[in-house]
Amino acid sequence: MKKHTTRKATRHISQNEGLIFEKSSPGKAAWKLPPLDVPEVDTSKLLGSSERKTLGSMPEVSEIEIIRHFTRLSTWNYAIDLGMYPLGSCTMKYNPRVNEFVSRVEGLANAHPYQPEKISQGALRILKTLSDCLIEITGMDAITLQPAAGAQGELTGLLMMRAYHQSQGNARKKILIPDSAHGTNPATAATVGYAVENLKSNDRGMVDVAALAAQMNEDVAALMVTNPNTLGVFEQKIHKIAGLLHEKGGLLYMDGANMNALVGKARPGDFGVDVMHLNLHKTFSTPHGGGGPGSGPVAIKKILEPFLPMPIVITKPDGTLGFEYNRPQSVGRVRAFYGNFGMFTRALAYIFANGPDGLRQTTEDAVLNANYIRKGLEGVYDLPYETPSMHEVVFSDKVQSKKGVRTMDLAKRLIDYGFHPYTTAFPLIVPGALMIEPTESEPLEELDLFIEAMKSIAEEVEEDPQFVLDAPHNTRISRLDETAAARKPILRWKRE
Amino acid sequence: MRYLPKSAGDRAAMLKAIGIRSVDDLFSPIPAEYRLTRDLAIPRQMAESEIVDWFKQRAKENGEGYTSFLGAGAYSHYRPVVIDALVQRGEFLTSYTPYQAEYAQGTLQAIFEFQTMIAELTGMDLANASMYDGSTAATEAVMMACRITGRNGAVVARSVHPEYRGVLATYATHQEIPLRKISFTSSGQIDLKELDRAVDNDTACVLLQSPNFFGTIEDVEAIAEITHKRGALLIVSIAEAVSLGIVEPPRAADIVAMEAQSFGVPLGFGGPYCGVLATKDKFVRQMPGRLAGQTVDKNGKRGFVLTLATREQHIRREKATSNICTNQALVALMVNIFMTVYGKVGLRELAKQNLAKTAYATGQFSKTAKVLFSDAPCFNEFVVETSEDPYAINARLLGHKIVGGLPLKKFYPEFGNAALWCCTELTTRSTIDTAVGLVAESERSVQGNDARTKDAEPEEVTR
Fold it and tell me: What would be the CATH architecture of the domain defined by A357-482?
């Protein structure tokens, strides 16, 4: 396959590295404690039978080995810092370094969650300022920052809706969820004790308003809608949808996973949403860190305010900030302490760096990038829904699958071209989906390289499908045996 | 805007390529009446130097430079500098969940090592890749136990962290899992007689914490016997991970629900932290959260993948073991590096220093005030009962830049003037002496000071 060049990437040497346990030997150490300034203790006398005798196969290694170990491992990862990471609905945008810096400022990083309020005014001010900004951005009335991630935000939102319905005399029985929804939506509804009822999408990939009208009744607590949805399509009838729900006493929940398409351009609170969560690790640039931590604040309309998780931040008569625990109608706590505070610092630094003009330009660029890719790949890959795209575009492998090459195979080949794969096989309503979200962080050059790579792969499929099926060719390892991994799980190292 | 990599010329060229005149055309799917035509009312765009100044200012208002005796689920331990040096590598910091194994072997192997060390330290067969924190880990463990046993009730010790119990109560209400409270004796340990009466054939699990909220180490073996004889599972929550260096892990437990913040994670005003679940091999398919497993690639080379995904929400949707998706990966990496730095010998020596500081502090405090629960072994927390309201004493300590122990009436109204104090390897002898001195002064001075109303913190009484 000499004909197809990969301009973005080239093969280079990377170091082999075993498991840390394989480098361990007795007597090596990477730690040193200061001399004890109090008397030594007899541990067996203090602890008796509770004393631990051995730490088994914990490693013993030196500091340079630790540095090399993790540095070598790190080079086996792809990252936003290396290039475009077009995972649809994941919003892999640039993670500004100043965010990391300010979250590590002494006084914030070392603050204990139970230190007196008198010496917590800085942290409380951060909670308050971020809350105010997010309320304005979403057009809602109040917010909780407590949920640890998007899925927990969903849970918190549904708990508040349930508590609201209960206060109206009927908790109701079910949640409507479009078939294009993220898997956490139905999983969350089940956790809260609601039955899940599927709502079919129409031929434009949007909520079928007639079907909704037919399915809507007094048993429905809420509709969970993602807007723009997982096809990257804005639900144009959103206000009608909200109306249908409200008419029968239901509430509209918005999954804010795709808020990067709306910030500064439209506010969910203005188009009828009652509850929504945000993913600070998507829209507000906090790092994904290989899978977390996230943060999933939930913004709500006034009618749900009494049910917010406790504590909430209040301004006291003397002007200082404090926590309020006396919330008789609160759904309770969803997490210890106040949430992933370190993510609040980062998100707020991002909002400050942008301001209103920067956030709007960010959204515009994100949508512009997605549409540029759509234009560049139209005709090369099948576009199952021609409805206009916002921040992401969903193609399918319809053309390539005729040669036996599926979305996952195309994705694996994309790795050889120096890009992280897009999201594969999601949303479920598109068979063989290629879900592409570039975000605003990509320069024109990177977008062109991506389009070129995707076109080149499409040609390879025509010329030599087996070559694509065998991809990736340039990685340390290729096509891991996932079936074997699940059949006989090896989940920890053991000394042989 | 400095994060946006485009010139006006680039944007114009892109619009032209798409075949539209203005970027606003791309927003036409949003009905005009919902399009925002004004600036958001948020602070103006700031320079990096202004941002740094703003946060440094907030840090100054936030107890910078204070020494603290607070623990209660958030512990101050030394963080080796290699942790931040390594977790700030962009390849770890700015990568996604390792679904594409070929492009994420670094993260996957690190998770595999994390799982191995957590399993080793907790005395369990295996561990997952992380949960949000200790409170949600304990809660998920209870729901997991209900699935495994097919039963629907949990017996929960009152000596479990009150906020963990609060979170459990929130989830349990909607899962319709009845919760039964078990009290503690004068030693601070679970009342075994009460436990024996409470556990019945409908009990799915017993949840305890050890060292418990008061720092007391529970008799896990005895509790396990009572629990298991009725066919229930034992869940042990561990909030102070450093204890595992010297305290025998709860090997008789079925699930360990841990908060690993002590292992190299900054206090950070309560988060992000690192929950983790560990369990026996036979329960793995009911465990929530991600798991990295070892396998081979098409050429027979060792590699790692996320595995047993059929438990998870993105495959199983409403039938998943949990709704968890994003976890605490980067924080788990901090924990991982911390465990690797201290390792087999260092963790034990570190735990011993914690024990020594605590022993010294309890010895000194008991000369002037009452140290409760001293009959049972404790790790690095202990309860001191004073004659004066602890909020009043703490107000005076603050003047010496010392944050005193946590007044327990915040969570346990019956405790009156008792406070939960914590020492770690970072607590110096001179700080302990200063604090003890001020408590002694308080004991000598007027009793029943009514400064409480002025200095009280809001109270949270857990359901």
Answer: Alpha-Beta Complex (3.90)
